[in-house]
Design goal:
- The structure is a single chain.
- The chain has 401 residues and is mainly α.
- It folds into 2 domains: 191 residues, MFS general substrate transporter like domains (Growth Hormone, Chain: A); 201 residues, Up-down Bundle (Growth Hormone, Chain: A).
- The protein has 16 helices and no strands.
Length: 401
């Protein structure tokens, strides 16, 4: 068994970089239209390409992790992600951006199956929950720091420098997990194909259940509600409410940092309750109410920063409860496949949302971005409450909790 701190540090660092890569182009949305001569709809299409590719490759890459080893697949993903941003840095055109984001989407499909396989194999069961929480926190933190850092680099040194820095982070993470004898090396051998085949046979019949379908829709709504703020709030605040880029970026950074903090708080909360659906519904209902204030344009400067931070905290708190809902619905022996299937909901939402939100900005309906986010939050609340009531009426489901 490898030393937990070394392995967890490596995997958390990789997850940090993966979320930097996810947020890098969205963070640069305020400056990309002018530099590339395209509108927000075209940029939304590019982000949709990233998510479509990522959704399509997640399951096959999960099998690749089992057959070829998590370390090899993870290293390939890091290099491919870095290459995608080098391409845009060298030739910053829209066509190149589409190709680069398709490659980045392929690279993004690597991280969750490889990361979770490494942690599950290399960390003691008694510490696994906390390890998953730190892993998630690292990803949220990477997303949180990306807008401020990379818009700052762009302002000082230009777009190419920002993209090159993102690529360099991927190479640095590749070097970190390439150290011989490190924690990743000790657990990253090829998986047991026979055991994987048995687990697949055991879980195949009951994997596609109505509950899994509901949870997949829930993940779509979660992505639509939060990605509106994560990826389009800066442009929406500048265009629709006349905020300076500095204030809008500060508000987004508060949202993302508080989301990361909320994940850690939510882990403790999830361990202390079995009503995970109700926890998620309450948090999102409060977040929807606060988002309505932003959509109405009633807040500016520091009050806006505080409210967006509170929205981030509430949406982050539900992440562990969300995962517990999936775990409760997973057939025995098919947890990995269930998480992989349900997680495609994030990519489906990520493919749909950017085009719609980009259209709103092009039509000068900037506050509609926040209104749409609020609507998706309310739909999430309704679906979560309905799912929780259905489970309470099923004795078998309650026993599985």
């Amino acid at each position: 068994m490898p030393r937990t701190p070394k392995l967890l540090t490596q995997v958390a660092a990789v997850h940090f970089v993966s979320h930097v890569h996810i947020m890098l182009i969205p963070a640069l949305l305020p400056v990309l239209p002018g530099l590339m001569g395209v509108g927000f709809v075209e940029l939304g299409v590019a982000l949709a390409v990233f998510n479509i590719v990522s959704a399509l490759v997640q399951a096959p890459l999960g099998y690749a992790v089992d057959h070829y080893g998590a370390r090899k697949v993870l290293k390939a993903g890091l290099l491919l992600g870095s290459l995608s941003f080098v391409l845009v840095a060298v030739s910053p055109g829209y066509g190149v951006l589409l190709v680069a984001l398709a490659l980045a989407g392929l690279a993004n499909g690597v991280y969750h199956p490889a990361d979770y396989a490494l942690l599950a194999k290399g960390i003691e069961q008694s510490r696994l929950g906390r390890a998953f929480s730190i892993h998630t926190f690292a990803g949220f933190l990477g997303a949180a720091v990306t807008p401020a850092v990379f818009l700052g680099i762009t302002a000082l040194f230009g777009l190419q420098a920002a993209l090159a820095t993102g690529a360099a982070l991927g190479v640095a993470a590749w070097l970190l997990i390439s150290v011989p004898g490190s924690g990743v090396y000790q657990v990253a051998g090829p998986g047991n194909k026979t055991a994987a085949a048995c687990a697949d046979a055991a879980g195949r019949v009951r994997l596609f259940t109505s509950m899994i379908g509901v949870l997949t829709v829930l993940f779509i709504l979660l992505n639509l509600s939060t990605s509106a703020i994560e990826k389009f709030s800066v442009a929406a605040l500048v265009q629709g409410q006349g905020l300076t880029l500095a204030w809008a970026n500060t508000a987004l950074t508060a949202f993302l940092l508080c989301s990361a903090a909320g994940v850690l708080c939510g882990g403790t909360l999830a361990d202390r309750t079995r009503r995970h659906g109700l926890v998620a519904a309450l948090a999102f209902a409060l977040a929807a109410a606060l988002t309505a204030l932003v959509a109405l344009g009633l807040l500016r400067d520091w009050p806006l920063v505080v409210v967006l931070g509170a929205i981030g905290l509430l949406t982050g708190v539900i992440a562990p409860s969300r995962d517990m809902l999936v775990k409760a619905a997973a057939p025995p022996g098919a947890e990995g496949k269930t998480f992989g299937l349900v997680s495609t909901g994030f990519n489906i939402g990520g493919a749909i949302g950017p085009v719609g939100f980009g259209w709103m900005l092009d039509q000068r309906l900037a506050n509609g971005v926040f209104a749409a986010s609020m609507v998706f939050m309310l739909l999430t609340v309704l679906l979560t409450v309905a799912q929780e009531l259905a489970r309470r009426c099923s004795p078998q489901e309650m026993q599985r909790l």
